[in-house]
Every structure is written in C-alpha cells, then in structure tokens.
Amino acid sequence: MQLHSMWASYPDLEKDLKDVLKTIEKNIQIRDKRVNQNVHSLIHAGGKLLRPAYALLMAEIGPDYERERAVSVAAALEVLHMATLIHDDVVDESPLRRGEPTIHSRYGNHYAVYTGDYLFTVCFKILSKHSDSIQNIEFSSRNIEKILMGELDQMRMRYNLNVTVKEYLSRISGKTAQLFALSCYSGATASKAPRHMAIKAWNIGHYLGMAFQIIDDVLDYTSTDSGLGKPVLNDVLQGVYSLPLIYAMREQKPAFAPLLSKKSEMSDADLNLLLELIEQHQGVEKAFELAQKYTKKAQKEISKLPEGDYKEILERLTNEILTRKI
Amino acid sequence: MQLHSMWASYPDLEKDLKDVLKTIEKNIQIRDKRVNQNVHSLIHAGGKLLRPAYALLMAEIGPDYERERAVSVAAALEVLHMATLIHDDVVDESPLRRGEPTIHSRYGNHYAVYTGDYLFTVCFKILSKHSDSIQNIEFSSRNIEKILMGELDQMRMRYNLNVTVKEYLSRISGKTAQLFALSCYSGATASKAPRHMAIKAWNIGHYLGMAFQIIDDVLDYTSTDSGLGKPVLNDVLQGVYSLPLIYAMREQKPAFAPLLSKKSEMSDADLNLLLELIEQHQGVEKAFELAQKYTKKAQKEISKLPEGDYKEILERLTNEILTRKI
Question: Do you know which Gene3D superfamilies this protein is assigned to (chains A, B) (predicted)?
C-alpha cells in the first residue's frame, strides 16, 4: 500500500493512515467489479489524506484515545471527501482525477452519481458504527448538509462577475473549511475531548481549510498541467471565479468582462490575456497573503494545544502543506 | 396543503401525512431560491407518500407510540425517496417527474446531483435527531447502502438480453422492496416494537415493495402517457428490461434481439412490435400474476399483526394500491 510520499517523514501517522485506507477498503464493496475496481483505485491514487490525518492528530487531544475509533472516524471523513470528489467530477465534467480517468468519464454519469451516493452512505455507516452518541451523528449530518449547501452556493455564483471577496470566503468556508473543521472536531470528539477543546479543534480546522482552499485556488492560476495533474484554469472555464481573479477584477472589471463573457469558449490567447491582467493587478500575491493570514491563525491556535508529540507533528505538517510553492 | 386524492378516505393517516410534509418542509432549506422552490414543489407535487404511510401505520404496532417520532421517521424515509428520485432523473435523463420539469432538466445536472446529496444528508439528520439508538442509524445506513447497490446493479444489467427473472427480482428487491421494508421496519422500531415484530414489519414491507415495483414495471408497458404522467416504455428505451419483457423473451428471444439491439433508437413501429410480441407471450399477465403472489404474502403477514384500527387501514390501503388497474 503506497501513500503519498509526503507521509514518509511522519512514520507513525503514515502507519495510522495505512489503516485508514484498510478500513475504507473493507467498507467499500461494490458488486460491479469494474466500478469497485475504479473506486479502489481512487482510494490508492495518491490522494493526500489530509482530512483523515488531521482527524487522527486531533484524536490525541482527548482523554480517551482509542486507536480503532480514531482510525474509523478518519476513514469516514475520507470516504465523505471521496463521495464529494466523484460528484464534483460529474458536475465539472472533469476527465481526470489524480491522474486517472474519472468514474463518470469512464462509465458514465449513471455510475458516478450512484457510486457517490453509495459512498455518502458508507460514511454514515462507519460514523454510526463508531460514534458513541446520536448527538455526534446529528452534528456530523448537520455539517455535511452545510458542505453540500456550499456546493450549491458555488453553482449559483458561477459566471457571476460581481462575486465579492466576502462571497468567495463564505463559499469556501461552507465547502472546504467545513470539511476540515468537521475532521478536526470529529477527531477530537472521538477521544472524548471536552467541548471547549473540540471547539478549538473545529476552529483550527476551519482556518486550515480556508488557507488550504485559497492556496489550491491560487494554484489553478499558477501551476502547469504536468505539475498538478489537472487542467489549469479549469475553474475559470467552469465559471468558478476564485480569489486571484476576484481581487484583480476589483481593480479593473471592464477589462475582464469581454474575456469572461466567452465563458468556456475562451481561447488560449484569451486565457493568456486573463493571466496577464491578473498578474498586473497582483491577484495571486494578494490571494496568497490572505492564505497566509489564515495559516497564521491556525498556527496560533495549534500552539495553544496541550503539549505532546502529536503537537509537533501538527505544527510541522501544517507548515509543510500551507507553504506550498506557488 | 394538498395530498394525493387517495388519502381523502383515510382521514387520520391524511392528517399524519400532512405533518410528514410539514416536517420535510421545515428540514429542507436551500439558499438558492429557485432550487429551493423546485424541491418544495416536488414535495407537494402529489407523490403518493406510500413509504411514510406504511412507516406511520407500522409505528402503531410497538408499545411506545410517540406521534412526533413516528412522523419524523416517516419524513426521513420520504426525503430519502426524494433524493433517489432526483438522482434517478439525472441518470435516466427524464424530463418530467410527477408532471413537473425535473431539477436536472431545468437547472442542469449540477444542481440535481448536489440537491440529491443534500437530501440524503437531510435524511440522516432527521433520523439521528429522532432515533434513540446508534444501532438504528447503523441499521438504516446499511440498508440505504443496499438500496444504492441495487441502483448500481440495475445499471450493470442494462441492455442485457439475458437478464433472468431471478436477477430481476434480486434487483427490485435491493431497490424498491428494500426501501419499503426499511420504512415498515423503521416505523415499528420508532414505537419500540420488539425485535420479532420489527422483523415481521420488515417482511411485510419487502412483499409490498416487490408487488408494488412489479406493478409499476407492468404499467410501463400498459399505460398511456397521459394516465401516468411519464413517457411509456421509458424503461425499455433506457435498457432497463423488466418482468413483462423478461417473461416474453424467455419464450422467443430471437424475435426480440433485433428490436432491442437498436437500444434508445427504437422507432414507434419497433415499440409497437415489441408490445405485440409481449402480448403474444402474455408477458404482462405473467408479471401481474407474480405481483399478486407477493400481494397475497403481504396480506397474509398483515393479517397476523395485533388487532387495532391501524390494521384495518393497513389492509384496505394494501388492497387499494396493489390492485391498481393494469
């Protein structure tokens, strides 16, 4: 079982994450062999496993750490993430995910829709098997509901030139940050952390998720196809305008309108011009600065957590993923 | 609030079902006004509400009937049903549902996929709020998982001329019958029915669901567009071969193969020929006979339930819906 290479320098966490994948494998058994194969490839296609990693680390802050429970909760969150990825790929009509053909592109929307649904249910199945209270499940489902509401919000804002920074932040808060926050919170409650500690974990996850998503969105404007394994400027073409573009548009909207009005029909020349305009208005730099603010907030909250080996790892990991090269 | 006219003759149940719809309304709040509107229309578009009705009736067999809990569980099951309908419409590319344009046809796959996901989560949220044990949630999620597996199986069997009666029954058992069974079971456990009674309720739901789905499939071959509010022979065109066709093909497969090989390109003349062949081999009659067998099994099990007003209603309702005109 091969994890993303980044985990080699976190041997204990790497071992736990391998067990997370084993738990996921055990819980996903689809009778259609081809689809089963495809989902299992997705499990092993080198996803970063950040959400389960944070859940596992946060499981060390409570008084009642039980490895199996922590691993299971982490697995449920990764399965939820996989479900949203599969449905995102249907919606975005993405041909590739982690360098592999997506389920919808290989087998059609049919399979992708139901496979995602199936994974949502697997997530709840694992959660309910390992939660010790209905309240936890209710809390999780309320939050997963918010994540999906974030997806619907993103749809609603597509191709909207007037989208504001505030709206952008609210959208990623409801999507990525919500899932990071839920992961941290669920990790903490899996070890019966007291309520105020679980809320701290939630906040850390929120800041992490905000920073992570802003950086991810910046990468859509800065990285090349080969480096990222997915088409660059994909979001822009899909009408999902993220922070670098929003910051730049704030300076000179009239220059952007004629380009963006071509929607998914923008030519390579249009895209190059768009990138130049964003550079001219320092959209990427400004977005990156905001990401750094969130990173610092996360780091500050992490520094207040109880001491322990896990805390050092938490600091190192956060530093590593949130200072990705742009 | 207008329910399907069939409920007028069941005034108590009608009152409870109205509260089921109110509970659903209260729990579904989508910020996108248009989508919210569309989902709320779906709630009121005259769905038969059979699953919640059976859940409500079965809630009377346990010793601890609590109206609010029974209504909530019934609502969760109808929300689950709505989620699967919305995703089914994406997969089948159906333009209409209950006489209204479907979400995917009006707003695109994007909205339909996420709206369905959102409803899945709402179902779990309601269930967890009103279940009194994790075991119930776990049981529900395991069964919802099986329903989705049934959907995936249906996909796998599409356009397969060699599909057997056994495979067909296993497919509808995993899909419709599973949801009817879960509805009856959940109703029973909502009033803390002892395990052996809950299992009885499960079995009744299973038989009901089998009969209901076979009759529904028969209607695809016998009813006209206006009567059913959806295109007739839709399933055949989508490659979903159901019981009347399977029975007829068993008699003379070579006659069907050239027609069916045209898949969704079958002309009106082809479809008429297909109907004639099915008539010739009495596909509809044989399917209807099997439905009656399941209906009788359900009725027999219902007759063994503890006496009470609910039981009479259960018998009348079952008689009414399972002797629909074909």
Answer: Farnesyl Diphosphate Synthase
Confirm if A212 and A242 have CB atoms less than 8 A apart: no
Amino acid identity, position A13: L
Residues of A in contact with B117 (CB under 8 A): 83-84, 87, 116-117, 120, 148, 151
User: Residue B300, SS3?
Assistant: helix
For chain B, the 3-state helix, strand and coil shares in percent, each to the nearest 5, are: 75, 0, 20
Q: Would you give the distance in Å from CA A117 to the centre of its chain?
A: 18
CA gap B280, A190 in Å, rounded:
63
Residue of A nearest to B144 (CA): A121
Four-residue CA torsion sign, B242, A102, B85, B193: positive
Chain B nearest-CA distance from A73, in A, is: 14
What does DSSP say about strands A96-97 and A100-101: parallel, antiparallel, or unpaired?
A: antiparallel
Q: Please give the structure tokens belonging to residue B198.
A: 């809950």
Domain count, chain A: 1
What is the CA angle B141-B142-B144, rounded to 5? 60
Write the CATH number for A183.
1.10.600.10
First to last CA, chain B: 30
A217 alpha carbon, distance to own chain's centre: 11
Q: What is the pLDDT of residues A91-136, one digit of tens each?
A: 777 787 777 788 888 887 878 888 899 999 999 889 888 776 677 7
Tokens at B151, concatenated: 């959907």
Min CA distance, A32 vs chain B (Å)? 7
List, for residues A261-310, the tens digit of each pLDDT value: 998 888 888 988 999 999 999 999 999 999 999 999 999 999 999 999 99
Please indicate whether, in this complex, the C-beta atoms of B110 and A155 are within 8 angstroms of each other.
yes
Q: In which domain, by residue range, is A137 found?
A: 5-322
* C-alpha torsion sign, points B219, B117, A151, A20: negative
- Which chain B residues are Cβ-neighbours of A240 within 8 angstroms? none
Residue B265, token pair as written in the block: 């390109």
Residue with tokens 């399972």: B322
Question: Nearest C-alpha of chain A: how many angstroms from B290?
Answer: 27
Chain A interface disruption, residue of B127, B130, B156, B238, most A CBs within 10 A: B156
Query: DSSP 3-state assignment of A100?
Result: strand
Rounded Cα distance, A123 and A83, in Å: 9
By C-alpha distance, the chain B residue nearest A35 is: B152
Predicted confidence band at A58 (pLDDT cuts at 50, 70, 90)? very high
